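Same chain as my last thread, 233 residues:
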Amino acid sequence: MNNLILVRHGQSFWNLEKRFTGWADIDLTEHGKLEARYAGQLIKKIDIEFDSYFTSVQKRAINTLKIILNVLNCNNPKINKAWELNERHYGGLTGLNKDEMIKKHGKKKVHIWRRSFDVPPPPMELKNLYHPAKNKAYVNIPKNKIPNSESLKNTFERVVPYYKKKIEPLIYQNKNILVAAHGNSLRALCKKILKISNKRIVEFEIPTGNPLLITFGKKLEVKEYKYLDIKRA
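reply #2:
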């Protein structure tokens, strides 16, 4: 059998402030760093030797992975960073407070923007301070691939092809893989791997800093899946 561990990054500053983050490159809070260390300790307990590590090009996910690898005593590991694993782009909502948006647009509308499978938020204008085109971290992403807004469906359509091309073949070769990414990019992955329906994915939430262990059989069938912190499962 082989293993895939998915970890949502620890709390970011905008998580704390209840702001839509998306492609804005916001770092971890001290609490977020503690969550990452705890995730590392949970992973260390199950004593898995990893073959490859993947994350997005956003620093909250990168730093979460680095903290975990430090706990695991991994020296100079090769980290695969891919924009395809970035968080979902929240469009014009980026940087705005979630509670204020609920007051302005209503709870139902905001819930649709946040949790529906195929309804994207309002698009972000190019002049927006947080537009990815203004971020040096995204300079190597093809311009026609930089979104102005994304639904979970859009996120699924970039995350899953990357997974199939870069990660799935490794699992098929009996490799153990660790991925540190984001709430929605991991929801997209779980939708594919665990065969979650469009209807059920609306209510599917991944907690920060709680590693999800997925164990596969020889033909990539899922044998078992569980959160390592059972109390937060």
